[in-house]
Write a structure and sequence with these properties.
The complex is a heterodimer. By secondary structure, chain A is an alpha+beta fold. Chain A contains seven helices and eleven strands. The relative contact order of chain A is 0.06. Chain B is built from eight helices and 24 strands. In chain B, a hairpin with a 2-residue loop joins strand 13 and strand 14. The termini of chain B are far apart. The chains are: A alpha+beta, B alpha+beta. At the A-B interface, helix 6, strand 11 and helix 7 of A face helix 7, strand 20, strand 21, strand 22 and helix 8 of B.
């Protein structure tokens, strides 16, 4: 006796047939297992026990042949250990003998309480967004200035989560909306934390670079978020997924760096006091006035170099106010 | 016709812009209630007639032509000052040619219809003057009025400005001498008469037909408020040109750079000599220049509706010392601005955002053909004596001039860091300064920001 299982592309069992010690598989109706796959021969495979009693699959002379998922080599005859997956035409099959050892019973644990966590995270995200808006509010407080951005945050999270849920359902058959929502919220919190850290760090350490290059960190965070979503869809092909998101992040960082360098070579830096924070956030030791003035000499040298390179051709982001003369 | 007028307009608009700092504020002192030029009585009119008929063969129109196309780019006026064909005009009339001699050429057109090429002989950027040379000689010419050269003309003296406004033909305009402009570092005569685009570089003469000044600009937004370069600068340039001989077109750019450099050296030395006085802004004491050629304007947002959540009292002082270099480059202006900001009901974070936005839209402008992109440096700057001076956060941004070595635009902004809901935001903007002068003035400026009284 044996069980013949028809598997989906993701190796989930979609049909299971009980057979005797010998089974024939094909498209014809005199087979033990009938497959509706046009790439399967009428009589394609025979499964039987060999002289040692082990299960073996044999090609019955089909055009498309018999393969295992382990290698791309066509096989005429292949022993079956219960793990091997056969490819017949475009159908995946697995054969298991009655003596196949199954995994022990898993105990039913307490139901994972993911929704309270999601609720707590959602509230945190909303509160943090509102707090950020409030801390930058310099006009009369108006509810509309809070509702619209907050609504925006909610919509973005929902659209993002739904996207991953749909992908997950298509490729793995399981939606996992709660899991993707959890990941999305954690990701958003990470973005918040990073942005504020870069913002305050740039003031505290008096480093324009920290704010100017925050986009690098943002893209890395974005790539990590995508990777965690992909991981949640299934543990397979980990290195490939990591490679793809890393490549996308690298391409995005490169593209933004190029556009930034174009901008800095045409427009230059802005001359206002940007990103001020309350004075208590200062971490850097202040300089003496003479030291600061003396340091500007380095700036002069870079300007002297810059004046010898001709101005770049006019870009669409040209900010010259009177350049249409 | 319209096209010509448009180009001519651009020609003098440049000069007017070089003079009028901002058109949104009355940057010139209000014009004295000068009697309007009297309705032409018989003797007056005959004087003008005599002056013009005498002056006519000595006047020229100066045209800057595009080398390849041959069409006119800008128009101005000029007047002969020597028998060997030297004529005076404004620098801004010939600036395109001076900066790009391979793209443009100069041509004169005399009232009798003759025309010919002009050679650039000498320039004086600071006084907006240039000497050009005709290919003809033995022509009648103007002489300078002795009293005007000495600066002895009485206020109210009748003057006649001549030139070719808007390419309409040579014209004579009556007006009144009103002395030198008070708040100007560069000497300019306030002439109450109608100067129009195209008359730049033309002579303004006394009733005797002798030159008192050179037409240069008019006040946009004023009525009959026009400006002349005093005759003594024109006479001095002519004498200098005679000694030094003609310049080559290729050396003009270097000469402009050289003149800008020495002009700003003198300006910053004069500024340092006048010194700073202290003004009080809330708990802070700030430096304001004691030089008379600064014109200061204050504003506050206290009366705005809805009620502002932080009150900003701003005072901004700027010099009327800007120089026309090219149609897209004015330089030389110095601005000092202070704003005392205090929170009404903003918390420390909101207040910091408010202060960040205060000077956000008053950055650099100007074309990158002339200037490099800005580069900035920022840091916290501590006082040597923390009881007398607050800690500052300072941003120093600068751009270099591409055409002239060693000249920069520098903007220094500073905000006090000693209080969470109160701050002084100061800004010093220097155009066309050498790095050393910018450093020296910035050091003086930043080092003078202190507490009004020691706590």
């Amino acid at each position: 006796m044996m069980w013949i299982e028809v598997l989906s592309r993701h190796h989930e069992v979609v049909g299971r047939y009980r057979a005797g010690d010998e089974a024939r598989i094909g498209r014809a109706y005199d087979n033990d297992v009938v497959l509706d796959d046009p790439f399967v021969a009428p009589h394609h495979v025979r499964i039987a026990r060999d002289e040692t009693g082990a299960l073996v699959a044999e090609d019955l002379g089909s055009v498309n042949g018999l393969y295992t998922t382990e290698s791309n080599a066509r096989v005429a005859r292949v022993p079956l250990d219960g793990q091997a997956i056969l490819r017949v035409g475009r159908t995946l099959l697995r054969v298991r003998a009655p003596e196949f050892a199954v995994a022990p019973e898993r105990a039913v644990g307490p139901v994972a309480r993911v929704w309270p966590v999601i609720a707590a995270l959602s509230v945190t995200v909303i509160v943090l967004s509102a707090l950020t808006l409030w801390l930058n509010e310099t006009h009369e407080p108006q509810p509309s200035r809070y509702f619209l951005p907050l609504l925006g945050v909610v919509v973005v999270v929902l659209v993002w989560t739904t996207g991953w849920t749909v992908l997950s359902r298509i490729f793995t058959g399981v939606a996992h909306f709660d899991l993707h929502l959890l990941i999305a919220l954690c990701g958003l919190l990470a973005f918040f934390a990073f942005d504020e850290l870069a913002d305050y760090g740039s003031f505290a350490l008096s480093s324009r670079g920290l704010a100017d290059y925050a986009y690098v960190g943002n893209w890395i965070l974005f790539a990590m978020l995508c990777f965690v979503h992909l991981r949640a869809m299934g543990p397979r092909r980990g290195p490939l997924k990591a490679g793809v998101v890393a490549a996308i992040a690298a391409a995005a960082i490169a593209a933004q760096s190029v556009s930034r360098s174009d901008e800095s070579s045409t427009v230059g830096q802005q001359s206002y006091l940007q990103g001020l924070k309350p004075p208590v956030f200062r971490l850097k030791h202040a300089q003496a006035l003479d030291g600061f003035i003396g340091d500007t000499t380095r700036l002069k040298e870079s300007l002297d170099k810059a004046r010898l390179t001709p101005p770049s051709s006019r870009g669409w982001f040209d900010s010259d106010p009177d350049s249409d003369e | 016709m319209k096209r010509i007028a448009a180009f001519a307009l651009a020609g003098l608009l440049a000069s007017a812009c070089a003079w009028a700092q901002g058109t949104d504020e009355p940057s010139q002192p209000p014009p004295p209630a000068a009697a309007p030029p009297a309705a032409a009585s018989v003797p007056l009119s005959s004087t003008a007639e005599a002056v013009y008929s005498d002056a006519r063969p000595r006047l020229l129109q100066v045209r800057t032509l595009v080398q390849s196309a041959g069409g006119q780019a800008t128009l101005g006026s000029a007047f002969l000052v020597s028998a060997d064909g030297l004529a005076l005009t404004n620098y801004h009339v010939v600036s395109q040619y001076a900066l790009e001699p391979s793209t443009y050429r100069l041509e004169y057109l005399a009232p009798d219809g003759t025309s010919g090429p002009l050679k650039l002989y000498a320039i004086d950027v600071a006084n907006d003057l240039a000497v050009v040379q005709l290919d003809r000689s033995s022509l009648p010419y103007f002489t300078f009025d002795e009293r005007a050269v000495k600066g002895d003309l009485p206020k109210g003296e009748r003057l006649f400005a001549m030139g070719n406004p808007l390419d309409l033909g040579f014209t004579i305009v009556e007006g009144t001498y009103n002395g030198l402009v008070d708040k100007s570092y560069n000497e300019r005569i306030h002439f109450s008469g109608a100067l129009n685009p195209g008359m730049s570089g033309g002579p303004t003469v006394t009733t005797g037909g002798r030159v008192a000044g050179v037409n240069v600009a008019k006040q946009i937004g004023g009525d009959l408020v026009s400006f002349l370069v005093p005759a003594r600068h024109a006479a001095a340039l002519l004498a200098r040109a005679r000694t030094n001989g003609p310049m080559t077109p290729e050396s003009a750019r270097a000469e402009i750079g050289h003149q800008l450099a020495s002009w700003q050296t003198a300006l910053y030395a004069a500024l340092a000599a006048r010194g700073f006085r202290t003004a009080t802004f809330g708990p802070y004491a700030v430096p304001e220049s004691a030089a008379t050629w600064f014109s200061c304007w204050s504003r506050t947002n206290a009366g705005e509706t809805p009620k502002p959540r932080a009150i900003a009292d701003q005072t901004s002082c700027s010099t009327q010392a800007s120089l026309f270099v090219a149609g897209d480059l004015d330089t030389g202006a110095i601005d000092l601005a202070h704003a005392y900001v205090r929170s009404v009901d903003l918390n420390a974070f909101q207040f910091a955002t408010f202060v960040s936005d205060l000077y956000r839209y008053e950055g650099f402008s100007g074309r990158r053909k002339r200037l490099t992109p800005a580069r900035c440096q920022e840091d916290f700057v501590r006082a040597d004596d923390p009881t007398a001076r607050p800690m500052l956060r300072v941003v120093w941004c600068a751009r270099a001039y591409r055409d002239f070595e060693g000249i920069y635009d520098v903007v220094v902004s500073a905000v006090t860091q000693d209080r969470a809901r109160e701050a002084l935001v100061s800004r010093l903007s220097m155009r066309g300064a050498s790095w050393d002068n910018a450093q020296a003035l910035a050091r003086e400026f930043l080092g003078s920001i202190g507490f009004a009284s020691a706590p």
